[in-house]
User: Fold this.
Amino acid sequence: MDKIIITGGKALDGKISISGGKNAALPLMCAAILTEEDVVFENAPTSLADMDSLKHLLEHLGCEVEFIGSKARINAKGIHHYNAPYDIVRKMRASILVLGPLLARFGEAVVSYPGGCAIGARPIDVTLKGLEALGTEITLDNGYVHAKVKGDQLQGTHYTLAVPSWTGTENLIMAAVFANGTTVFENVAREPEVVDLCNCLNSMGAKIEGAGTPTITIHGVDRLHGTTHTVMTDRLEAGTYAVAAAITGGRIHLDNTTHEVLHAFTESLQRSGASVTPVDNGLIVEGGNEIQPVDIITEPYPGFATDLQAQMMALMTLAKGTSLITETIFENRFMHVPELNRMGANITIQGNIAVVRGVPSLQGAPVMATDLRASVSMVLAGLAAKGDTTVNRIYHLDRGYERLDEKLKACGATIIRSCSD
Ligand code: EPU
Assistant:
């Protein structure tokens, strides 16, 4: 199994081109199910393992999927069945995003019920209740969700989400595009990736208003057509490399990203002493002389993203003082804490709060983690630590970071990827 070995202690200096967002591209690819025509995505992060898993699933359904460089082309004319099997869904929870579009176009779908994962229980009740409100009959059988439209078509409705679930919102929007009449969803997710999805759907002929606000209105249409859409920047990848600059006291020019989608994060990063300067089509992040402690509370967008919590915690391990990091989104998202402590950090957990007492330095160690963002926080700690850090189980990193080792190496990091057997 591959691993990454980092020799820490170098201030990074260079330019990194930020890829298209994983969490934007996955729902966008599922939206292609809604039309028989070609849908082309530019700036797609096609080398990610999660993109491959979704390609596999779409092909299994009968779609043509082609990845050429950073372009993805999908044609869903040939879909011949509506079943997302356990073997694919268990590898990637986002597979659940085929449920809404399959139901909208074909009136039925069978999707393996995604289980919990390392970061929490991750229920999907919001999606299922919303689909029921649109007129779907839902049954659970042998670990599968069977969804079938009652009558001829889904019916416009007024539904308030119990929590603003991100992929739940996306699934419901895609389900409602062909519903009869108007649908209003309240308390929806406001993530920029939801806005990107709605922009793409509108360019395919959908009529969606209010994306980016807590209320979304969808006027049902009869059909959607093909489009070409540019996937938005990966704000989580950008945030990760911003921390790489700050934790090493270096300077990284993040190209192909924007301050607007990173606001709560960059504000915290600046409070830690780093400088963040918007430039044409990007940001320059420069570490300060000293890292200041910063308290963080994760929240749905536009709050501080849970997907940047582990990275920020790596930075806070080296702060001049104590930071409180409160995780409010997932019940088990502190798996990086024991591993960071093995590198010399001083972190204790009290319920959903991590108390991070800054230490003067970290030491390299063999580490591993059980999810994507926890794994990358170890890479960041390794970049600043004395000596060698070996990050095992890097298939997690491959799910969400394109060419991570190459991008960091281009900024002067001593990092190698090696095969351990
Ligand atoms: N929740 C419910 N009921 C539901 C759905 C969610 O109670 O039906 C709760 C969850 O338990 C959790 C909160 O709502 O406490 C947020 O869950 P959400 O449904 O928003 O998460 P998700 O859509 O499954 C997406 C991202 C995650 C990111 C979360 C939170 C994608 C593909 N995944 O997951 O990304 O952490 O939103 O922002 O967009 C990652 O990229 O590393 C990642 C895990």
Q: What stands out?
A: The chain has a mean pLDDT of 96. Residues 235-248 form the longest helix (14 residues).
